Amino acid sequence: MASGQERILRRRIRSIDATKKITRAMELIAASRIVRAQARVRAARPYSDKVTAVIANLASAGGEADHPLLREPAEVTKVAYVVIAADRGLCGGYNNNVLRATERAIAADAAAGRDYELVLSGRKALGYFRFRDYRIAAGFEGFSDQPSYSDAQQIAAAATALFENDCQRVMLAYTQFHSMGNQSVAIVPFMPLDTSDISDGDADPDASAGGPDGGYEFEPEPAAILERLLPRYAEARLYSAVLEASASEHAARQRAMKAATDNAEDLKTNLTRVMNRARQDAITTEIMEIVGGAEALSQTAGGEVDLLSDTIEARTANLFRARE
Amino acid sequence: MQVELVSPEAVLFSGECSQVVTRTVDGDIAFLDHHAAFIGALDIGQTQLWASDGIVTLALNRGFVEVSNNVVTILSDAAYAADEIDVAAAQADLEAAQAGVAADVDDDEAKAALAWAQTRIAVAGAA
Fold this sequence. Notes:
The complex is a heterodimer.
Chain A: H1 3-63, E1 78-84, H2 94-111, E2 115-121, H3 123-131, E3 138-140, H4 149-165, E4 169-179, E5 182-191, H5 195-199, H6 205-208, E6 217-219, H7 222-301, H8 305-323
Parallel strand pairs in A: 1-2, 1-4, 2-3
Antiparallel strand pairs in A: 4-5
Chain B: E1 2-6, E2 11-24, E3 27-31, E4 38-42, E5 45-51, E6 54-60, E7 63-68, E8 71-75, E9 79-81, H1 87-103, H2 108-126
Parallel strand pairs in B: 1-8
Antiparallel strand pairs in B: 1-2, 2-3, 2-5, 4-7, 5-6, 6-9, 7-8
Helix pairs in contact in B: 1-2
C-alpha cells in the first residue's frame, strides 16, 4: 500500500525539521559570537598600536639594535609554520582552506629544498597533520572559540623557541577577517619581524609628538628596552591573528549553518510536496477501486441502486475519516 | 595630563591624572604634568595614578611606559587593582616562590614570581 511510503516520508520530514532546528540554533550562536569576537579584535588594537609606536620611537632614537628578531636571514633552510585553525568543524571550508594552503606552502618549500616545522593551534589542525604524518613541533587546542592573551603567549613562545633553534623564518597561516562576508586565508611572515610595519608606526599621532627624534629620555638604554619590547610585539601580533581567526571561524560557521538551515527548509518543502502527492494518489486509487466495484455490482444486480450508492457513500466517508 | 593604561586585551584605565608613580627597571620614577618625553621598561612593582577621584594603586607585572606630549601610556601584560587581586592565590604563589628561591638562590624566575606575589599582596593590603 502507498501509505507505507507516506509514513517514511513523514518520518524523514520530521528528522529534517529537527536537524533544521539545530543548525538554526548554531547559526544564531555563531552570529552572536562574531560580534563578541570583533569587539575583542577592537579591544586588542590599542595595545598593539602603542607597542608599534614605541618601537618606532625607539628606532628613530637610534635604538635599532641588532636584535635577532629583526635580522633578515642570509639563507633559509628551515621554515616554521604557525597554523591557526579551529577546534570544531561544522564551519564550511574554514579549516580546510587554511590547512590546505599550509600544506601547499610546505610542499613549495620542500621543492625549494627547505625543511619545515609546525606549530599548530586548533584540534582540527592537529588531526589533519597528524593523520598525514607530518612532524609537529608543538600543538595547542581548546581555545579557538575565545582565545586569550596567555594562549597567544604560549604559541608565540613555541614559535620563538623554533626561531631561536634552527628555523630562520616563521610564517603565520591564519584566516584574516576583513568583514562579516569577507575572510581570506593568509600566510604572512611572522619572524623575523617585519620592520616596514614598524616604520609605519609614526602614522600614529603620538609617535612624532615626543618632539624632535632623540628627544626621548630612556630608562634603561634603548637597546635594552627594545630587547624586552620585541617579544611583546611578536605576542601582540600573534594575539591579533588568533583573534581574527576566531572571528573568521564564527563567521564561517554562521554562513555554513545558514546554508544548512536553508537547505533543510528546501528539502522539507520538496518532501512535503512529494508526501502530499503520494497521499492524494492513494486516495484517488481507492476511490477508483470503489467506483469500479460499484459499477460492476450495479451491472450484475440491476435494480438495487439505492443500497449500492449508500454503500459507496459509507465507504468513502470511512476512508476519509481514516485519513484524518 | 592624560594617562592610558593598556593591556593586550583591553584599555584598563584612561583619564586625567595629576601625578603618576611607577617603577622602571632602574628604579621608581614619577611623572607630573608636561614631563619630558620618556620611554622606559617597567619592573614588577606598584604603580600609582593620582586620578581626579582618588589615588589608584595597581600591581604591574612588567611592561613599558611612554611619555610624550603630556600623555602617559603604560603598557602591561598584567595590571591589577587592589580589588581584582586574589590574595589567597597570591599568598600561595608567595610560598611556592619562597620555596623556589630557597632551593636555588640564582633562580631568576622564582625571584620574579616572589616579587610579583609580594607586590600583589602589598597592593591588596594597602587598599
